[in-house]
Amino acid sequence: MTILTRLKSFPVLASILWVILLPIVTIFDLDSSIELYNPSSEFGIFIRFLGEVPGYFIVILALSIFTIYLLRNPFESASSTYVNLGLLIVLNYGLIFTTATSIDKFFSANGISIFDRTVLAIIFSIIYTFTIWSVYKSDYQPNSSHLYFAALTIIVVLLYPLLVVNGITKPLWGRIRFNDLADLRLFTAWYLPQGFTGNRSFISGHVSMGVMVWALTPLLKKYSSNTQLLFKILFFVWALAVALGRIIIGAHYLSDVFFSLGIGYGIFYLVNRKMRDKYLDME
């Protein structure tokens, strides 16, 4: 029996552990921020500006794979193909501009002025367009693992960072960030939504994008079970590092990142269960 087979019950055990830890997280929610808060932390600053970038690139890669697939495998209607390609291109360039913005903010915050975000976005766009065209002109055809990765990534990012995080929890909870607290008495527990206050602490968007590295797991099928496990551990450690950095910099509380990790991996697990057999049957 392989290690991965033994871990089939891991989601159940992880869910039980999450429920057990929730009261502890709730009790130490504010205290953990007080103890860890360090606005000058280099690690925290790094995570603030670049913690989401790997997630952006993973989504861009997934959208690019679908773009190539649609170019090589058009739908019955040419118009529907063009519409889908148009949407994919808009999403790609939107993510490219967001990534360029994050990098520009990072350099600006450290007193380095190389390119502004518009120039970076143009450079990334040219590279992206050239890459897509070069790949399209080659013999590359996405295989089932590539399509599985792309579909999993796109569905999860639409459900999680876009819908759950930015569309529901952040605006509805209206929770004030720790670094915005003028008085500790303004702190609100995670289970007390404040409504549309303009504050956006609960839950963490950075962590939701940090979790996106988990989407790379379908591309590891050719490796041994132990190697796959090692990569999965590294992916999880990266998400934890992003979560820690957000607490240290004062952008989120322990409960913000705790829920973001739990919901993110939960969505990945559920979407993966629905899609796995469909794409494995393509091989």
Which characteristics define this entry?
mainly alpha, 283 residues
In percent, how helical is the residue content? over 70%
Compressed to H and E, one letter per element, the order equals HHHHHHHHHHH
Number of domains: 1
Shape: globular
What are the segments in which pLDDT stays under 50 over at least 5 consecutive residues?
none
Radius of gyration equals 20 Å
Largest sheet, strands/sense/barrel? none
Distance between the termini: 23 Å
Provide the residue-averaged pLDDT: 84
Number of beta-strand segments: 0
How does the helix and strand content classify structurally? mainly alpha
Strand content: under 5%
**Number of helix segments?**
11
How is this structure best summarized?
The chain has 283 residues and is mainly α.
What would you say this structure looks like, in words?
With 283 residues, this protein is mainly alpha-helical. The protein has one domain. The chain is 70% helix and 0% strand. The chain is built from 11 helices and no strands. The longest helix is centred in the first third of the chain and has 32 residues. The radius of gyration is 20 Å and the shape is globular. The two termini are 23 Å apart. 30% of the residues are buried. The model has no long low-confidence stretch (mean pLDDT 84).
